[in-house]
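HUMAN: Please help interpret these tokens:
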Amino acid sequence: MNAEAEANRTLARELMSAGGTASLATLGAEGCPFASYVVTAPGADGAPLTLLSQLARHTENLGRDPRASLLFVREPEAGAESMTAARLTLTGECGVHDDAEARRLFLERHPDAARYADFADFSLYRFAIASGHLVAGFGRIVDFTPAELLSEARG
């Protein structure tokens, strides 16, 4: 892999592993996209995890159709043009992930979520990546396979 390709892959992985916020787009009952704000954390293999309430519209949508998209954005530096923000769009499926290690990783990254993580209406979800699309500024656009974005599971 050349240096530019490796830099793009590193940036994409950094955007996913930041464990911050993302936009989650699901498909509404009528088939229209529905975007919402979620908090994410990387799983052991780097796949995004999120804690969702059954009361939320996006969770209802995922129950009908697990296809979804996640958008991660790193704001540009102060004074830079807005459209130079690095952004990664993931497409794939999002489903309940009942895994103690994944839950631990999520709560380690977001300890405040422990207040509601045990509520009956909350479940941990894992985003299974089908593809990634990185825009890292003007003309710097790269597509990724899941293998290029995910890491080997930590031991």
In short: The mean pLDDT is 92. Helices lie at 3-17, 57-64, 100-109, 146-149. The longest strand covers residues 122-135.
